[in-house]
């Protein structure tokens, strides 16, 4: 055993030289084995609650098919744990009786966690929050609220301050913020997931080294968001999204009026948004199909677009100007008209105004045009490495947000030359 | 040249591997030693099994080695009546620490009993929470004991409980509620800081006063009895204001002390609410971290349609006061430890926010 461990350590040491991938391993590759395997049936809710409170390391918990009702569940400070059902349509956990706390399931300080093969639904707060954990897999999970309105919790699947996260084959519906939300984490993969009827289908926020691929986010207010917010534990960036299908995200924004902050929240996402990149850098979007998001297929914005005090918030963890944004080889189509809810939304109205000013259909990529020139007093046409390589016409508009309040100076420009990838 | 550097690199790999192997060996030995040490602590089944108290258990009459203590500003828990004790192992001492909880020796117990006053003005025991510093791994462990209806014993109870009670609040007014005894993960939720379970209450600054039942400052008493070492001159020890004492402390001091004790165990870097960017420690000076002019990050509908944590001069539109004034799950703050609104606490924070000079908030 000892030799075996040493051998792996040597391999690991050599591996460092060979510059191993830092990406999460496949769930299947890990093939975890557990010292203790517990199995429960519907009706044994109180035993399950007790089991989760008395967990020893290296335990898997199997919830057999059927419907379970819980107030809330928690797992804390114990390593190598699996909480599994018998399948998305078979094991159902209902949290509509939640009477205290912020979420249905909360998991904190776990190294080596798998939550899989079940439906969780209808909590008062978030459905599944995983805080300060490492080596996390969430797979084959439905996380849903039956009503998509502001009474739903904020996030369906919510890893935050985690390291090495894989979310795959999941479905999120009805969140009043983001269905799949990865916050303040490092090394995250979201793949083969679907999200519908959320305000945001999926959001990667203040998170580094994220890969988002083979997902379908549709019928949300906004399909996919990559945001950095000020004042948080870390800066995000280095996010790639490819081979996704972001479509028909034209749902009304049902985030409780203003409840996510006038400036920063997902309440700002206009109905009809495909992808929004806000105040974050080193982003690559490619080979996605971005179809029928009818207000803005892709928005690139700086923190200044939503917060005039963004400059005061600059520090090691926050930079308001989005830089090094690569958008190429996507298939992008927009319908002929804005969705009706966009006309009632404060950012939607701005997009409508841009279209009116241009006197033609709004281009598929909308850039707020607030560049680092405002910090450096520079004059370069594209100082922040925005690089777009998309076929077709009516691709791009620099919306000149800085002058939007001054109709006589405001001049949105559709010339893409300076922003074309070299 | 190239060959040499390749050789250097290669030998580097080999040496590196050897180093790993060596450290492996010593690591494994160390592990065996740890295993040989004392077994992990097991909690007793009943509160009486520990022998902390003499006479009738519910009178909580401490044994001579059981040290009662009080806090200048305590956590609000449904107007619960709390008794607190520290039990040091024979011949061991606590050590003064300027910031955070005192440094306790291995095998220290910290006991906190929760009771309420019923409509007959009787003290009814609810639960007794125990923290113990396990000598096998030097980590704090938590357990909770639920009192029986006969009030003769408290029994180990990990799953928490919902207890319908009618209590008298601080004004003697009857309030009916379903008291929520926490489960052991709920305990960890507030007590974990930087991934380590830690005591919250017994910080020097919150102990630095003279409780009504004591002849002098309790830190000084402990130092003179040889229970606390390293205590500097009391003038050099920070003092957390008593949130009710408006004669000696300003509104701001009292409000900040209240927020420290009721919020900052989670709302601090490394705490459960680290991700919110709202940090409410007494020493916090950064307005944005304190919530002044700050938008919430992940409050969801819990913010109640409001946009800013604290708007100076405008408590009605400040999320902080709104969430303290709620009992709805996903809205109420703190999320745990209370099922009814602490009216006096809400009033204090409301007055504090009202007293702040109004600032120009950019119109949206």
From TrEMBL, chain A:
InterPro entries to which the protein is assigned, alphabetical: Beta_helix (IPR039448), PbH1 (IPR006626), Pectin_lyas_fold (IPR012334), Pectin_lyase_fold/virulence (IPR011050), SO_2930-like_dom (IPR022442)
Gene3D superfamilies: Single-stranded right-handed beta-helix, Pectin lyase-like
Record carries keyword Ribosomal protein: no
Pfam hit, one: Beta_helix
Xref: NCBIfam families: beta_helix_1
Right handed beta helix domain boundaries: 104-227
Keywords assigned by UniProt, alphabetized: Signal
Protein name: Right handed beta helix domain-containing protein
Keyword Signal: yes
Signal sequence region: 1-27
From TrEMBL, chain B:
Signal peptide positions (record): 1-19
UniProt source species: Flavihumibacter petaseus NBRC 106054
Domain of life: Bacteria
Keywords assigned by UniProt, alphabetized: Signal
Nuclease as UniProt keyword: no
Keyword Signal: yes
InterPro entries in the record: Multihaem_cyt_sf, SO_2930-like_C
Name of the protein described by the UniProt record: Cytochrome c domain-containing protein
């Amino acid at each position: 055993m000892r030799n075996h461990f040493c051998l792996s350590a040597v391999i690991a040491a050599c591996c460092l030289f060979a510059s191993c991938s830092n990406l999460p391993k496949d769930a299947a590759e890990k093939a975890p084995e557990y010292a203790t395997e517990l199995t429960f049936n519907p009706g044994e809710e109180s035993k399950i609650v007790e089991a989760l409170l008395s967990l020893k390391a290296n335990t898997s918990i199997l919830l057999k098919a059927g419907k379970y009702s819980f107030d809330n569940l928690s797992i804390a400070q114990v390593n190598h744990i699996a909480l599994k059902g018998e399948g998305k349509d078979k094991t159902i956990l209902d949290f509509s009786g939640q009477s205290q706390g912020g979420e249905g399931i909360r998991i904190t300080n776990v190294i080596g966690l798998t939550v899989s093969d079940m439906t969780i639904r209808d909590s008062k707060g978030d459905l599944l929050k995983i805080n300060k954990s490492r080596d996390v897999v969430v797979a084959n999970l439905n996380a849903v609220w039956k009503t998509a309105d502001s009474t739903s919790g904020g996030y369906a699947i919510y890893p935050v301050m985690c390291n090495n996260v894989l979310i795959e084959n999941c479905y999120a519906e009805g969140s009043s913020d983001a269905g799949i939300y990865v916050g303040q984490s490092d090394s995250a993969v979201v793949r083969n997931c679907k999200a519908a009827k959320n305000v945001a289908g999926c959001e990667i926020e203040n998170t580094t080294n994220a890969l988002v691929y083979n997902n379908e986010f549709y019928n949300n207010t906004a399909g996919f968001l990559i945001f950095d917010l000020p004042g948080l534990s870390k800066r995000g960036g280095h996010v790639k999204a490819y081979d996704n299908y972001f479509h028909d995200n034209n749902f009304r924004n049902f985030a409780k009026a203003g409840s996510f902050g006038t400036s920063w929240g997902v309440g700002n996402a206009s109905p009809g948004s495909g992808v929004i990149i806000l105040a974050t850098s080193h982003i690559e979007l490619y080979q996605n199909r971005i179809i029928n998001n009818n207000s803005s297929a892709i928005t690139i914005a700086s923190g200044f677009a939503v917060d005039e005090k963004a400059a005061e918030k600059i520090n090691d963890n926050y930079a308001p100007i989005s830089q090094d944004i690569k958008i190429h080889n996507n298939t992008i189509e927009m319908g002929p008209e804005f969705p009706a809810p966009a006309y009632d939304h404060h950012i939607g109205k701005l997009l409508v105004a841009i279209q009116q000013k241009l006197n033609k259909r709004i281009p598929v990529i909308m850039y707020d045009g607030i560049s680092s020139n405002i910090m450096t007093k520079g004059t370069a046409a594209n100082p922040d490495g925005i690089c777009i390589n998309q076929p077709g016409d009516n691709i791009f508009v620099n919306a000149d947000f800085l002058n939007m309040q001054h109709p006589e100076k405001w001049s949105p420009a559709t010339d893409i030359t300076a922003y074309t990838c070299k | 040249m190239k060959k040499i550097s390749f050789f250097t690199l290669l030998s580097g790999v080999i040496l590196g591997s050897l180093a790993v192997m060596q450290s492996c060996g010593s690591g494994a030995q160390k592990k065996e030693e740890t295993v040989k040490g004392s077994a992990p602590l097991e909690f007793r089944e009943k509160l009486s099994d520990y022998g902390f108290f003499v006479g009738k258990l519910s009178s909580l009459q401490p044994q001579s080695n059981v040290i009662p203590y009080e806090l200048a500003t305590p956590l609000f828990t449904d107007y619960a009546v709390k008794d607190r004790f520290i039990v040091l192992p024979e011949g061991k001492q606590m050590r003064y620490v300027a910031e955070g909880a005192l440094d306790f020796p291995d095998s220290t117990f910290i006991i906190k009993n929760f009771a309420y006053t019923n409509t007959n003005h009787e003290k009814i025991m609810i639960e007794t929470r125990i923290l113990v510093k396990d000598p096998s791994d030097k980590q704090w462990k938590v357990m909770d004991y639920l009192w029986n209806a006969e009030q003769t014993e408290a029994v180990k109870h990990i799953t928490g409980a919902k207890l319908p009670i009618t209590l008298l609040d601080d004004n003697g007014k009857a309030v009916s509620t379903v008291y929520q005894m926490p489960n052991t993960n709920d305990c960890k939720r507030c007590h974990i800081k930087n991934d380590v379970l830690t005591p919250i209450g017994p910080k020097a600054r919150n102990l630095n006063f003279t409780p009504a039942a004591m002849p002098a400052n309790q830190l000084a008493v402990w130092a003179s009895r040889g229970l606390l070492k390293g205590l500097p001159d009391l003038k050099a020890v920070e003092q957390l204001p008593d949130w009710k004492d408006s004669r000696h402390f300003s509104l701001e001091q009292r409000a900040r002390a209240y927020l420290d004790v009721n919020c900052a165990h989670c709302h601090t870097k490394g705490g459960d609410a680290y991700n919110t960017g709202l940090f409410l420690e007494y020493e916090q000076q950064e307005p944005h971290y304190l919530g002044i002019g700050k938008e919430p990050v992940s409050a969801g509908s819990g913010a109640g349609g409001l946009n800013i944590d604290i708007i100076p001069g405008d408590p009605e539109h400040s999320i902080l006061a709104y969430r303290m004034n709620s009992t709805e799950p996903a809205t109420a703050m703190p999320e745990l430890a209370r099922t009814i609104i602490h009216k006096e606490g809400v009033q204090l924070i409301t007055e504090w926010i009202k007293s702040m000079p109004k600032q120009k908030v950019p119109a949206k």
